[in-house]
Write a structure and sequence with these properties.
disordered N terminus; single chain; 175 residues; 0% helix; mainly beta; 6-stranded antiparallel beta sheet
Amino acid sequence: MLSLSNKLTINTRPIYRFVNKYSIVFDGVDDVIVTDDADTVAQNTTYSFWSKSSTTTQNTVFGHGASNQGCFSFNYVNQPLLFLGSGHLRYWQDNSAQDDGEWHHWVVYSDTNDITNCKLYIDSVLQTPVSTTVGTVAAYTESLSIGGDEIAGGNYFEGNIDEFAVYDRELTQAE
């Protein structure tokens, strides 16, 4: 099941085991799910999803119109990267969850007002940022694209994504 969650509610029960029955397989070439007016304005947002991939090169999970517009990628120079605008980005430590071919739960918090407050959780563990650059937040030019940074001609995801949810607030670590 791939769905956009209700932005105001979340199931707060801990997730002990993920059993994949229905996920979307992305080919890394041009497969992308374009949402209908979901999250079209650069604002504080939490993205939650399950994913598995074996790709060790740049692997873009989602974006809003270009690689520097609300875009999150695995293995961008071997590290997870949230790119919010011109020179406005945050890298986290290299983690095998990006490309070990196993299912992992990812939560990305994008704080468009303070890049130093952006967070990444992998399997409920807060990740350590390795570098942050403060620049200018880019306006989103497209609605949320899952599996790529833009509708056509962008960078795309190779692997599986399931249970993608978007929240208009920061989730707590317990959530």
